[in-house]
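Slide 14.
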Amino acid sequence: MKAARRATHVGLSLALVVVLLAVALPKVTGAGWGPVVEHLELLTAWQVGVLLGLWLLGLYAHTFLATAALPDLTHRQALQLNLSGSAVSNLVPFGGALGMGLNYAMVRSWGHGPGSFAPFTALTTLWNVLVKLALPVLALGLLLAAGGLPTPGLALAALIAAGTLAVVLLLVVVALASERAAAGIARGSQAVATAALRAVRSRREIACEQAVLDLRHRMAGLLRRRWHRMLLGMVTYAVLQATLLWLILHMLGSSLGIVPVFAGFSFGRLLTLLVVTPGGVGIAETGSAALLVALGGDAAVVAAGTLLFGAITFALEIPVGGVWGLLWWRRSARTRWAR
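Slide 15: predicted structure.
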């Protein structure tokens, strides 16, 4: 029964992705598929190579966050974790738990203790969410500084993101600064989790207060020593991804400047937090394209550019990360067999 519900959920999510990309994207941009394909066919092999190189450079920049959040993790291992976990997470909606399970097994196989994975996951997730919330606020400020008129959609998104960012930052600062506050948050989380379990008629008991306090202590120590490295990794990663989108659009013939492209990129990154589809795919591309067209982008170029950006930053991670994950599994299996 659970497998059937899971399959239905996956099928509906994938159907939504198809509808968004095949119907909603052409509708919001006003571009038919013919011109979109024609623009994509203009790209040369060396241009595609440059784009892939920039994508890989961005992924390498992200490893600075991972290696700071998990001491003794190498950059190669961090890249393997990122791609392999994303390959699993991107295949199904709410697949983050599956990707997290794979990453945990990989981290343990490399000799890291079981207590190191929780702060690693919490810190990398926290930084990713904070940056995605901050990007639309920064984009709105840049548009205003450049004399541009922000669209109502971007202004509303920036307002919501700013409010959410403020709340998240306040909770994080309070929880890290005060053990009493952290204990209160832990008790509140425990009460919510227990109520949720009772709602589904589960008698399972959850005791998370001490676990949250231990996690807080580990996170606070890592942040004190390595926050600058984490910030550098995330900022560089975001800049390189925004540059990738601008370069794609430029290669396809767009005349949009870096500020409006950054606004479209920021809005799309914010929408990836909506995990109705795997990684927010379809939703992010449609929203980003709509904003870029509203800011003066050519419809066909924008549609082609956002699709290619999604193909590189989302779809390409599935086969690349999948192969890398399988190689790790085979090597790990051989090690266990040798023992």
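Speaker note: Residues 209-251 form the longest helix (43 residues).
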